Structures are given as C-alpha cells and as structure tokens.
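hiii, so i know i said id send this last week but things got crazy w the move. better late than never?? heres the sequnce for the chain we talked about at the cafe, plus the structure i predicted for it. fair warning i was half asleep when i ran it
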Amino acid sequence: MDPEYEKELSRLGIKKGHVIEVVVREKSSELPQKGGAILWKTTGNQFGSMHAVIKAIYEALPTYKGKRIFVEVKNKTNGKFQICNHHIALKRIPFTL
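okay and structure toks below
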C-alpha cells in the first residue's frame, strides 16, 4: 500500500471540529469481533488527532494500563472508522491504534 494512504487511514483524518465517537470495551475471548462490556463511551468535537483520542482513553481508564481493550473510533464528520480489538494500554501513549 501507499505509505501516505496508510498514514491517513490510521489517523482517520481527525481534525479540530470533527465529531468523534469513541467506544471502549473489555477484551472478550467469547466475542472477539464485538468486545465485552462497555467501559467508556464518549462523543464530541474536542479531539484534534488520534493521539488526543488515545490520551483521553488513557485518562478515563487508568486501571486498564497494560491490559487488552477493544477500541472503536468513528469520525462522524467524514464517515471513517477504525476498530482495534487488541490494543494494549502501555506507559507511553502511542499516536495510532
């Protein structure tokens, strides 16, 4: 694939003012494509990048650092979405899921 396309895809084209919906669920081995119970859900336009979205997840769920979580991010402004069913919250905040 084209590196520029992959970069844009991994960041969802998030810009200031875009309406972003974030749903974080527990990792579930029974439902690997859907995740388990909802841990945190938010919708808003306060995110300016994917890094800001991930940072908000880390701040909302400090007890899940180092554990697997299921993350679903939807950019409602441009229609793009990304699902990550294996994200591990580590000490350093990554720029992409």
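btw The first strand starts at residue 20 and ends at 26. thought thatd interest u
miss u guys!!
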